[in-house]
Amino acid sequence: MKVGLFIPCYVDQFYPQVAIATLQLLEKLGLDVDYPLNQTCCGQPMANSGFEKYAKGCDALFTKNFAQYDYIVSPSGSCVLHVKEHLHDDKNPAEAKHIQSRIYELCEFLTDILQIKDLDARFPHKVGFHISCHGQRGLHLSQMSELVAEDFSKPGYLLNMVKDLELIPLNRKDECCGFGGTFCVSEEAVSVKMGKDRVQDHLQHQAEYITGGDMSCLMHLEGILRRQKSPVKVVHIAEILNGSYA
Amino acid sequence: MTSREKILNQVRQNKPVAIPLPQNITFATVTEPERLPAFVKSFTSAGGVVSIVPDFTTIGQELQVLFDQPERVMNTIPAVGYGLAPTDAIAQGHILANLEVAVVTGSLGVAENGAIWVSVENIPTRVLPFICEHLVLVLPQSKIVGTMHEAYAILPKSFPDYGVFIAGPSRTADIEQSLVIGAHGPKRAHVFILENE
Amino acid sequence: MHNEHIIPTDHATAAEVFLQDEERANWHDKALWFIREKRDVATKQIPDWELLRETASQIKQNVLGNLDNYLEQFEQNALQNGIKVHWAADAAEHNQIVLNIIQQHGIQKLVKSKSMLTEECHLNDYLLENGIDVIDTDLGERVVQLAKEPPSHIVLPCIHKRKEEVGELFHIHLGTEKGASDPAYLTEAARQHLREKFLTSDLAITGVNFAIAETGGFVVCTNEGNADMGAHLAKVHIACMGIEKIIPKAENLGVFLRLLARSATGQPITTYSSHFHRPAKGQEMHLVLVDNGRSVQLGRKDFYNSLKCIRCGACINTCPVYRRSGGHSYHYAISGPIGAILAPNMDMRKNADLPFASTLCGSCTNVCPVKIDIHNQLYKWRQVLGEEGYVPATKKQSMKAMGSLLANPTLYRIAGKSGRTMMRLLPGLANNKAMNPWAKQRDMPAPPKESFRDWYLKNKKQHD
Prior knowledge:
The structure holds three protein chains of three kinds. By secondary structure, chain A is an alpha/beta fold. Chain A has two domains: about 1-115; about 125-240, Rossmann fold, CATH 3.40.50. Chain A has 13 helices and eight strands. Chain A has helices spanning about 10-15, 15-30, 45-50, 55-65, 75-85, 95-100, 105-115, 135-140, 155-160, 185, 190-205, 215-225, 235-240, and strands spanning about 1-5, 30-35, 70-75, 105, 125-130, 165, 210, 235. In chain A, the strands form two sheets. Chain A has a four-stranded parallel beta sheet with strand order 2-1-3-4, sandwiched between helices. In chain A, strands 6-5-7-8 form a four-stranded parallel beta sheet. The longest helix of chain A has 17 residues, at about 190-205. Chain B has helices at about 5-15, 30-45, 55-65, 130, 150-155; strands spanning about 50-55, 75, 100-105, 110, 115-120, 135-140, 145, 160-165, 170, 180, 190-195. In chain B, strands 1-11-6-3-2 form a five-stranded parallel beta sheet. In chain B, a hairpin with a 7-residue loop joins strand 9 and strand 10. Chain B is globular and about 65 Å long. The mean pLDDT of chain B is about 95. Chain C folds into two domains: about 10-295, NagB/RpiA/CoA transferase-like (Rossmann fold, 3-Layer(aba) Sandwich), CATH 3.40.50.10420; about 395-464, no CATH class. Chain C has 23 helices and ten strands. Chain C has a six-stranded parallel beta sheet, with helices on both faces. A four-stranded mixed beta sheet of chain C has the order 8-5-6-9, with helices on both faces. The interface between B and C is large, with 77 and 94 residues.
């Protein structure tokens, strides 16, 4: 099994430790992981702004970078969903389709493909889990509170394997954090208010850390926490699962 | 071209591919022994009052206790035997502006939501169950079905000129989501369920 | 009456104003979340809930695919029932038809129960201009009418108003005690005030929740009983409906009435579900079928299923953006996510901001009782608006630049090395030198000493 590691642009630039944790975790699980050096972005910022056409270059590059892998894995539900739903490559449609059917967000890759049953990780803290909307409502990583359907959570299943980690409950377990891509600046006031409310829910339940599968949500929440001079930190789920958070 | 033709032409031109109506779908129902308790729960949750009585006479006796003068009550069910009976259809509902109590036949009840079907055929004027201060409904227990699907299966295909499902007293929560019973219609809805009819 | 308080502005700006009073915004958010939670409780009592949604969606799909036939069938049956049927191609014609009926009867004042269609057509303003006094009888609508505002929510028209504000309005207009704000007291005052209007109005306008092709009748749902009080006491009843409100058979009501109130307020059914089939003796019953852009929307393959909407408002209650920006920030008769996918069909230029007033979180789609893929349509509207030139040029330019940069790994790496370029690439940041909207209320992430790629080349690639 040959795995291509897709590291979203902002993770590459701002959160290399998340990418390192993802790579190390996959390698610890015995996988042959490759990181295509010419990767950049999934194209979502342009597409979500109404300009899919300006994402075509990104799409072509993405297909070129990842068509050769059995699986493509990424520590970002949002970018994975975007590729799954919107990757277009007119010149290489079969390759694009292959990628769309073989791309996985890290947690679902661990639970569904690798089907791991335990992990060597310890995180002795109170942790609030923030599910990203694209991860949940898009990729169905966990059950959506709106539906009348059985509850489940793939990230929750994984976090339960981590020793001494205490998962705190939330009042609104799957409310959006307000990042929303370019929404975070074009609708700054609402975006920040949503973020503040999300942070407050975690703080109210004594979270020491807020974790999640999407660094974009966490970057937004971190920005608010820092501005509030809160001691609460954000940590990507890959860092916890890898046992590498320092 | 008339607007009618214009609209229909444009609809015809633009409509998406038709799919057949969903057929033969079975929805879970409220089973027979659960119907009465479910109905009572639904109707009371909506702010209504439920009394289970053996016969019409008992309803009359209870009404006498609740509303001591028969002139206060417009009764459309002779067997209840209390209150004043309308002799004819009422052309102008306005004359009922100060009516305190109306006693009205419910011809069907729905367990899942406490709704009771009132048909214009059983009332002297359409506004009666709305304009009164207290609405008294009389419903045979045997006429309680599980869900709305069953209700529509029973209602006549040629609907009465007017009919309404009533599920409690009139209400509003428009001011700060505070529930207030008694908006424009009755402030009290009281259903007497007849056990033996 | 004109809506003086609503200054036309884009959603983001209006939302920023709304959020200046944070305590009030919190209250607004909680009030709507409370309804979302009631909706959740109600739906979870129906084990078949998801099957009901799917069935409703399919029925509506069938309706839209046969809409012309159902409209004709409905018209024929309604005429046979003695209902006078009118067709209006647009809002202006609808208003004209209504005014004509009013004038034919020499009527000066009328009562109206809730109808989002008449809001969409701005009927009240039109009638007022023509000297007709319209009294909205839904409590929430009466409140916003007295405040000279449009409804901020399709089901809860004055959800943005605090009880003290309602108290003040009622003090001025209905003579309630100064400072009184108890909802029960205010509701009783409105009851007495409107009771007099019901008893003295010869004409009543209502909306329509469902019109049944097979029987030629229509159903109106209320909790207050105001539609019935108005219609039954008036000599003339005019019901106004969008052409998409048709359903094939009465039995379909079983599906829709189970979904509607549970989705809207968490009630198992509205207090009143009134089935009008024939006018009462001595009464006249009119029904106005209104297109107003619907037949155009029907032809948009990505958007036509927005016409499945039954106006329950569930998507509005669950929308985290709506809850924190208020209904008026949407500057369209129908606010929230559903409004944001309906409004561009009416006027792309005016409503180009609305599909962007969303994080695309998808909660709207999940609560929708007829399974409209609202968040996907928001995304698709953005593409249409981008293509048609309704997205601001600055945004377009920055996206074009960003797209080229990200398509080129070398340029991307050079840009990345030059500091926080990635953040600067976000639209608004690059073009707004005066202020960085990210950093206004948020800290920027601290730049690490190296990118992952650099780390990878140093630590991994050499071992390969």
